[in-house]
Amino acid sequence: MSVRPETTPNPNAIKFTTDKMIFQGDDSISVKPGETSEHAIMNDLLDITGVDNVFGYQNFITVNKGFDVEWEELTPKVKAVFEQHGY
How far is 18 from 11, CA to CA, in rounded Å? Predict the structure, then answer.
């Protein structure tokens, strides 16, 4: 599987899209600091230092970072979590 990072209008958010469905149904999932999700991938992404919140729907997850973190540092860690979950 491949994970494709895509820029968004928000410079602090990147959309990570996969070829495989991550979330079934038509409901989106949003997880903020201090919250947990029934979806382990969302919790694992939020555990990465520098990740502020995550939003998922069907075959993508948008990761929002803190202002003091660079995407060059964060993107490989995010991709590694996707790989650990089989994407």
Answer: 20
Contact residues for 54 (Cβ-Cβ < 8 A; gap 6+)? 30, 31, 42, 45, 46, 61, 62, 63, 64
Q: Which residue from 27, 24, 71 is spatially nearest to 48, judged by alpha carbons?
A: 71
The encoded tokens of residue 47 equal 């555990």
Task: Please write the tens of the pLDDT for every residue from 18-47.
Answer: 999 999 999 999 999 999 999 999 999 999
79 close to 15: Cβ distance less than 8 angstroms:
no
The half-sphere exposure of 53 on its side-chain side, counting CA atoms within 13 A, is: 8
Q: What is the pTM of this model?
A: 0.95
- Whose structure tokens read 């964060």? 74
Q: Is 36 exposed, middle or buried (0-12, 13-18, 19+ CB in 10 A)?
A: exposed
